[in-house]
């Protein structure tokens, strides 16, 4: 996904590295859109980005890694923002309170993931079409569960409540995404609707 940085905090070396990496990612996504993932090689990406193969492999192990570029940065930014969400009430063993918190945290994640709508669409289509990419995406989503569980523990949730709420939150994300396929403009609303339906059931 798209990367964002603070140029003022970068050294000249870091700026050059960022530009090279961004050029590789931009070239890869352009080629994937033009030719399809299976018909693009590392050599093609390096040529389009005007870098050597050695430079490509300095940043990425293979072309699959390019598809998930920036994930760590996005995750760190979202976690930091989620930690700043005001606590409405202590969570403890309250599943509604845990889900209310995660509803806001997941909204932050979606906002970040869909900052570049076209890149989001291409990313989702690439992942849906390729089993190896789907496997990586599933592993990433399982890490979301671990992160959400950790965030809930920080809010005082007990282990059982944190684990259940994190799994339910991921299910809401899946349900919303399935409802709108790869449309970033409707994703946030669809996921929030899923949370609302669950909240109605849990609260009732």
TrEMBL record:
DNA-binding region as annotated in the record: 41-60
Top-level lineage group: Bacteria
The protein's name: TetR family transcriptional regulator
Annotated ranges, domain HTH tetR-type: 18-78
Single GO MF annotation: DNA-binding transcription factor activity
Alphabetical list of Pfam families matching this protein: TetR_N (PF00440)
Record-linked Gene3D superfamilies: Tetracycline Repressor, domain 2
Cross-referenced SUPFAM superfamilies: Homeodomain-like (SSF46689)
Record-linked InterPro entries: DNA-bd_HTH_TetR-type_CS (IPR023772), Homeodomain-like_sf (IPR009057), HTH-type_TetR-like_transc_reg (IPR050109), HTH_TetR (IPR001647)
Taxonomic lineage from the root: Bacteria, Bacillati, Actinomycetota, Actinomycetes, Streptosporangiales
Keywords: DNA-binding, Transcription, Transcription regulation
């Amino acid at each position: 996904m798209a990367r964002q940085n603070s140029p003022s905090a970068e050294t000249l070396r870091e700026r050059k590295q960022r530009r090279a990496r961004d050029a590789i990612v931009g070239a890869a996504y352009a080629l994937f859109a033009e030719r399809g993932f299976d018909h693009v090689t590392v050599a093609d990406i390096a040529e389009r980005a005007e870098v050597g193969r050695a430079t490509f492999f300095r940043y990425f192990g293979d072309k699959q890694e390019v598809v998930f570029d920036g994930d760590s940065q996005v995750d760190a930014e979202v976690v930091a923002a989620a930690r700043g969400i005001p606590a409405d009430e202590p969570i403890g063993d309250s599943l509604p309170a845990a889900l209310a918190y995660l509803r806001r945290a997941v909204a932050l994640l979606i906002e970040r993931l869909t900052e570049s709508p076209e890149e989001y669409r291409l990313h989702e289509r690439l992942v849906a079409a390729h089993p190896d990419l789907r496997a990586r995406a599933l592993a990433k989503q399982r890490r979301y569960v671990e992160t959400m569980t950790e965030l809930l523990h920080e809010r005082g949730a007990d282990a059982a409540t944190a684990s259940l709420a994190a799994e339910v939150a991921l299910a809401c994300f899946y349900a919303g995404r399935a409802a709108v396929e790869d449309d970033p403009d409707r994703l946030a609303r669809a996921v929030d609707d899923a949370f609302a339906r669950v909240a109605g059931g849990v609260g009732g």
